[in-house]
Amino acid sequence: MPNAAQAQRYQGVQLTYYGDSVGIGAELDQQLGARFTQDTGIAVRVIPRPQSASEAYATYLRFFQARSAAIDVLLIDIIWPGAFAPHLLDLRPFCAGEIDQFYPALIANNTVADRLVALPWFADVGLLYYRVDLLERYGFAAPPATWEELEVQARRIVAGERAANPVFTGYVFQGNAYEGLTCNALEWLASVGGGRILERGRVTIANPAAAAILDQARGWVGLIAPRGVTTYQEDDARNVFQAGNAAFMRNWPYAYALAAGPASRVAGRFGVAPLPAAPGQPRVGTAGGQQLAVCQYSRAPEAAVELVRYLTSAPVQVYRALRGSFLPTRPAVAADPRVLAAEPFLGPLQAVERVTRPARDAGARYNQVSTAFFQGVNQVLNGADAVQLLPRVARRIERALA
Amino acid sequence: MSEVVVPRPRVPTAGAPRAGAPSLAARQARLAWLLLSPSLTVVLLVAIFPLVQTVVLSLTTARLASPEPARFVGLSNYAALLGDYLFWQSIGVTLQFAVITVSGEFVLGLFIALLVNAQFRGRGLVRAAMLVPWAIPTVIAAQMWKWMYHDVYGVVNDLLVATLGVLPANVAWLADPTTALAVVALVDIWKTTPFVALLLLAGLQVIPEELYEAARVDGASALQQLVQITLPLLRPAILVALVFRTLDALRVFDVFYVMFGERPDTMTMAIYNQETIVAFADVGYGAAISMVIFLIIGICVVAYVTLLRVEAP
Amino acid sequence: MSRPRALGRLVLYVLVGGLLGGLLFPFYWAVRSSLTPNSALFTTPLEYWPSAPTLEHYQRVLRDGQFLRALLNSALVAGAVTVLSLAIGALGAYALGRFRFRGRLPVLYLVLSMTMFPQIAVLGALYTMITWLGLYNTLWALILTYLIFTLPFTIWVLTVFFASLPRELEEAAYVDGATPLQAFYLVLLPLVAPGLVTTGLLAFIAAWNEFLYALSFTQTPDQRTVPVAIFAFSPQTGGGFEVPWGQMMAATVLVTLPLVALTFVFQRRILAGLTTGAVKG
Which of A102, A168, A205, B104 could, after both became Cys, cross-link B189 (CB 3.0–4.6 A)? Predict the structure, then answer.
């Protein structure tokens, strides 16, 4: 353990760590907590945080409201540092030497008013999944590089496949009215020069490029995307793609292991690539993932920081990448051959520019900003006109920030 | 004739026993309050305290875990609500939903209750089956129905399109605004008809058999028995079923949230309330929304009681 | 049997068949899905019965000791809430249904008003109260807060039942020298048994299915109830996006069957005609 010697100074302290709620993440949390205790003598009580993101958010807020010392280390979503910043400890004095070992975009996301309030723990990026066999069958040499190319390829593949499979569809993504749509739509905007919703305090979504791409996305619904895509979340899209009923899918890396697994009909027949973009614009993917933070009101902040440093250390990130397919937040770990072998999508991922949602700038009002945005986009996907709607959405966002 | 008592003004009736000396009435009252004391204690703890806190919060700009202190702003939250288009839209959605589901559940629930009460083969099966929707947790049932209505791999589409050929192509039941409300109403009717049926069934059990015998002797048909004996005597049970079902329909949350998320055109009052309090952490404005919802529901309850009382002979 | 009678019978059976189909279809779908391996859950064309049925979902659910613990927790909470509601509610309904006193109507409305708030509206205040009482992350928090929605309809339904009984019953009891409480316990309570069973059943199932408070007032897995536990099943991947459908359906089937059996048995008592002869017009 890298910082064992340092941490042993705080032997005998008891920490409470609100970690991953379910699945392999929760299992690993327990293991890592036990290992930490073994090596340092600091007792760690691992508590799975509530399963739903909004419930976890509310739980943390309630603890903060009560200035409770009940949590020491907490697992927080990438969009929460801005809202929680007043209640989190500044980690810079403790980790100055390690900060540049993480992806800069993620560190910038977690830095609020010059205070680094969380360390990035695992990352997620939006990717394009595509059917290698279908591209081959219909004569396309490579996955689409622009949105127009995506439309062309999807249309031809759908036309060809529909005869045998009436429910076959071209492109599935997350179109339901929830945070996932903000991720998808941000990718659309940032890939065509439509801005990133909030930039330097100004709301920039009411611009022609943004309206154009949203109207273009509206055109996909019912034609190359199923009409019900406006109710899809991550797993809905994955189920369609994994059953072989879609040519393209936008999703997080979690879907890779499942689509390549024994329960999948497309195992061995798909690949991943960066999402399309307009010519001359960067290939982007929205950054997701979780961060680790220390609560301001903790009674053992130094010990808590040691736990955070341990969990985000390179060896632990390699372990989690191999055991649970979690994406590392350290470029060095992402280049490790063992990790590359276990997570093949890391290769294409290098070409993707991570774009972060404006949570840091919007602070505690981010949820209102995001809700106004995804409700507007959902309405466009369901048939509204983006040119008319975007100014109204912009005004709602401005009111929320006021 | 037994008195059918539902909230009514206190009017001494001919059949009532004469209260003797005033002290008997006073003793009765004291005993009544004693018997009610456990209930009132619970009410105090789990209802009055939250009510008071909600009222107080609604007059402030409180936000959860905000570094800024809350300011007292009087009724300005309520004034803002008046101009809140999204809130009014959610009231409309909720009222529409309530009308559809309560009437559907009432009709279906009455049918089931009469069915189970009667003698016929297969009655035991209906008795058991009617509890199944109620027994599955709402959040699970909502997810299941969302899956069953899926436009690519849902079983409803598969049945109607692939198996029975009734529809030409898969329909996106949830995404399409014209079918969305009908679909979610159907799910709710499926889920909560058992509640109405059970209540009405219990009410049917206390109607004496002799009344039906006398009517049959007089030559009344089944329909006449239903209209002239069953329904009037069932009125108190009907009132209770309608009131509680309406209360639940106006506060509906789980089914809509699971199926539609925070989609604006299918947002109910409770979802808007939840979004404001939890996601936006705006507990002051959220408390004002809660109070207005409380008022709307209160108006509906009073309307019910008045209407059903007016119809009484 | 006459023609119109036979036709009427046929129509009735068709309606009953349709009704049964509508009520039971989702349950059949849950059973079918619980036996379907992950590779065939969402594929098209749909299998109405799995071609390669598997018990792996049930095995995973039962192997996880937490689900069984959740079943126990739910049973405890629902049972306690039902008993408390019936006890408190029957006493209150006796007062509201058989006594005349000032404040009767306001109390009825006050009790009803408990259910007129959306659940989320009272959550914050309840959370404060629960932590102040030191009940956070215990089953008692749920038992207490569930009374919010079980007590009102218990009181209202039982009030209606009590009020519908004839005056003469109590008079007879008093003449025999009974105190009001004895009249309540020995004479009136048995006569409202259908009401007790109905509200007991409804309270039990309402408490069993509740999700929001169970999620908000518990913290550790050993205090979870069934709905919360079903959503806590472990998917294979991290990140929280994957929904482990097979296990969730297996758990749903495991939970629904005993519930239906239990309520079926209790319902028999309603239809056994406990009120024969006692209730007169």
Answer: B104
